[in-house]
Every structure is written in C-alpha cells, then in structure tokens.
Amino acid sequence: MQVKEYLKIEKATNISRSEVGRLGTAIIFIVVVMVYTGSKFAHVEQSYLLIAAAVIGAYMAINIGANDVANNVGPAVGSLALSLTAAIVIAAIFEAGGAIIAGGDVVSTVKKGIIDPANINDPNVFVWVMMGALMGAAIWLNTATWLGAPVSTTHSIVGGVMGAGIAAGGWDIVNWDSMTKIALSWVVSPVTGGIIAAGFLYTLKKAVFFKDDPIEAAKRVVPIMIAIMAWAFTTYIFLKGISKIIKVGFPTAFVAGLLVGILVWIVVAPMIRKAAPYLTPDRDGLNRLFTLPLILSAALLSFAHGANDVANAVGPLAGVVDVLTEGAGGAKVAIPLWIMGIGALGIAVGLALFGPKLIRTVGSEITELDRSRAFCIALAAALTVIVASQMGMPISSTHVALGAVFGVGFLREFLEQRLGLAVENVLASHQGQPDFLEAERVLHNFQNAPPEDKLRLLSELKKMGPEAVISAAQRKELQKALKRQLVKRSALLKIVSAWIITVPVSAILAAMFYFVLRGMMLP
C-alpha cells in the first residue's frame, strides 16, 4: 500500500473516531438528563412522558448550541480576534450564565402567541403538541447544522408549535397575524442588519482607513465607535438579559447604556492615544484597536442569547412538566431551575461538540472578515435587535447577524467595482500612442491592493497622463479582473433557502411527531 493512500485512510479513520466521540458525549449528556428526570419524578403517574420530554428538550438544547451560537462568536473567530477554542470556552460560559442568571422566571410555552392554548382542552393533547413541536424543531436544527446552514432556532420552534398545533386543533388554532409578522421579519431582519453594518463599515473607511494619516484619524474616531458599541450592548443586555431578573423599561436601559458609553469613551480615548505610536498605518495596525471590543461583544452577545433563547429549548418542556405534575397547561408557566440547567448545559455541550462547523461558516466561508468588519457586524446585530424590540417586531438574531455579514461583504464588492470603474474611465479617457509598461505595472498593483490603497494608485494613474492608454481588448480584460465576487454566492443561496423553509419544514416534522405520539398513546 502506498504511503499517500495509507495517510488518507488514517485521516478518514481519525475523523470517524472524532465524530463517534462527539456523538458519544452528546448521548452521555442525554442519558444523564434521562436518569436525573426519572429519579426526580418517579412518583408521577406518567413519568415516562416527562422523561421523554426532558430528553427531547436536552436534544433541542444541544442543537441550539451547535447551530445558533455561531452567530455570536463567528465574526470574532473569522477575524482572528479569538481562536476557535477560546471562542467556544467564552461562549459556553456566557451562554450558560445568561440562561441560568437571566433566563427568566416566566416564559410563554406557546412562543409569540402562535397558537391559542385555550383551544386545546385535553392536557394530554397539550403534552403531545409540545413534545411534537420540540422534536420537529430539533430534527430540523440538526439537519441544518449537518448541511452547514445557520438558521433561526426561534423560527424553528415557532414552526414546530404551529405544525403540531394545526395537527391537534386545525388551521383556526393558529394566530396568522403573528405568522405574517414572522414571515415579514425574514426580509426585514437581514436587510436591516446588513444596511447598519455596511453603514458603520463605510463610515470607518471614509473617516479612518482612506485618510492620509489613518492613525491620527483613528485616535478621534475609534473611541467614539467603541463608545457607541458600549451604549448599544449595555442597552441590549438590559433589554434582553437584566429585564428577566428585574423590570427594566427602554428609557432606563437607554440612559444606562448612554452613561456606560460616555464612561467607556473617557477610558478608551487616552488608551488609544497611548497605543497610537506603536501602530502601523495600515489595516493590520488599525485592526488591533478592535480586538478587545470584539472579544467583549462575543461574550455579551452570548450572554444575551443564553438569556433570551434558552426558552426555545425548555419553554415547551416547562409546559409539559407543569401539565404532568400540576395538571395545568396555560400559556405561561414558571421554569424550575433544573429545567433551566438542562437548557444551559445542553447549549454549552452542543456548542463545544458541534459548534465549530457553523462558527467557520459564519466567520470565514461567507466573506473575508477582519476585525474592523467583525466589529461593525457585532454592533449592527445589537442595534438592530434594540430597534426591533421597541417596534414590537419579532426578529431573529441569526438573520440579523448573517445579514450584517452579507452587508459587509457586498459593500466590499461595491467599493471594489466602483474603484475599478474609476480606473477604467481614467485609462480609457486618454488618447495617443502609449508606452504601456508603466500603466501595466500600476494596474497589477491596483488589482492586488487592498481597497484603501487603491485611491492612492488612482492618483498615480492620473499623473501618468496620455501614457495611461489601453486598447478595447485590454479594457475588457481590466473589467473582468476587477469584478471580483467577495461574497460566496453558494453560501448565500444555501443560507437563504434554509431560512425560507425553516418554518414549514419544522411544522411538517412536528405534525408528524404529534400524530406518532397520538397514535402510540391513544387506546
């Protein structure tokens, strides 16, 4: 056997062992949940249903960690502000902390009013609906993770509740007004996130990167940008995290964020002035200023996500526990700490075992990210969620974050093509017999230069005067060379397709599981 063939087999074997190890660890976690729930509720008449619901909730939490958390840390990893291992550790700690500390005492088990629980009079049917919803959503999330498509876990559970609800009570049980708003958010969320992220990145380019002295410009602009981020994230955490512990309105959150932002500006401005002499006046040097803000943003986004989205895993489970132990079944139920723990630990386990695939997708496979771009993405995510929360619009943080990634990538394409058109017009406007060697050298440098250097190269081209002339064939080649695609179109198509089918696929799977449960349980 040749050495190369042996190495290929060995590599495939190692991958297989790794996959088996991750799967085995996930199964161990689920078995621990099953044993704990069984011992805690051995006295309950239908304890087997409660154990099954806990297992499905744990499975759902694992899939949330594997798929959804990537949006919080992916840009920081893709920009090399954080290593993959460090990102997983930080996200796992803050996700679990957000879920346990600020996960909320009360959560709607029928997410966002999708169905009316009053139309489900039989407590057993309510249990089957919640279990079917969880299982349908979890299976779809698992599939999307395997395909490498980041999708909304909130929309997954919404689709699951809708599908199982329709299977149990017919089409009239669904609140179609809420579903219309959710469908609208599929467009509004990513577009808004993309516009805000592109706007901040363009501001950074114009105010800092395109300046003759970018270091001096950075000393003025970057502290303001970091202060805006501090304001946005403080407000975000108050609305999405602390409000679950104490009652906090938007005015209070806004003022608290403003005070923190001013304090951060006072602290950061002298720090950047002190660091400025040691920075190189290029993109790499300036990007160093965004490292710490990116790390903090990844941690804060993870905390808010854990506080807000743990209900996607354990809200329906809490409803099942309430029905089987108390005989209730209302729209809102208290979540015991042990159920919150299942959600928190499940998200951390899923992130650690299966999260790297989606982190790489978000961080590097859509478009190339550096730290300034990742900074704009994180800031756009926080601002969009704040604005949408005050407008009462149900949006997905996944859609917002990925929309911001695409917005940054398409802005880069736009700027490159605009500069390419400018250089084409400069060269085509000159007449006469050219000496093209000098023009060829400048064009080669132009093609391989980062966007902030191209303005300087354009100035050189203008100085060359009538010698900078190209033929029609050369002009065509120039157009072809400068029209690079900086956003991976296959990733765009895959992700958008997954978004569109998330609710219907989750609904169909949940309805199927509901009918299976109903068939098994009815005499």
Structural class, from secondary structure content? mainly alpha
Q: Can you summarize the main beta sheet?
A: 2 strands, antiparallel
The secondary-structure element order is HHHHEHHHHHHHEHHHHHHH
Range of strand content: under 5%
Distance between the termini: 61 Å
Question: Strand sequence of the main sheet, in spatial order?
Answer: 1-2
Q: Mean pLDDT score, rounded?
A: 78
State the total count of DSSP E strands: 2
Please state the overall shape, judged from the principal axes of the Cα atoms: elongated
The overall number of domains is 1
List the total number of helices. 18
**Percent in helix:** over 70%
Rg is: 26 Å
Q: Which helices and strands occur, and which strands form pairs?
A:
Layout: H1 3-40, H2 47-67, H3 70-78, H4 84-102, E1 106-108, H5 123-147, H6 153-169, H7 176-209, H8 214-240, H9 250-275, H10 283-287, H11 291-326, E2 332-334, H12 337-365, H13 371-391, H14 397-428, H15 436-448, H16 451-463, H17 472-482, H18 489-521
Antiparallel strand pairs: 1-2
Helix pairs in contact: 1-2, 1-12, 2-5, 2-11, 2-12, 3-4, 3-12, 3-13, 4-11, 4-12, 5-6, 5-11, 5-18, 6-18, 7-8, 7-13, 7-14, 8-9, 8-11, 8-13, 11-12, 11-13, 13-14, 14-16, 14-17, 15-16
Write structural notes for this entry.
By secondary structure, this protein is mostly helical. The chain is 78% helix and 1% strand. The protein contains 18 helices and 2 strands. It has helices at 3-40, 47-67, 70-78, 84-102, 123-147, 153-169, 176-209, 214-240, 250-275, 283-287, 291-326, 337-365, 371-391, 397-428, 436-448, 451-463, 472-482, 489-521; strands at residues 106-108, 332-334. It has a two-stranded antiparallel sheet with strand order 1-2. The model is unreliable at 6-16 and 105-111 (pLDDT under 50).
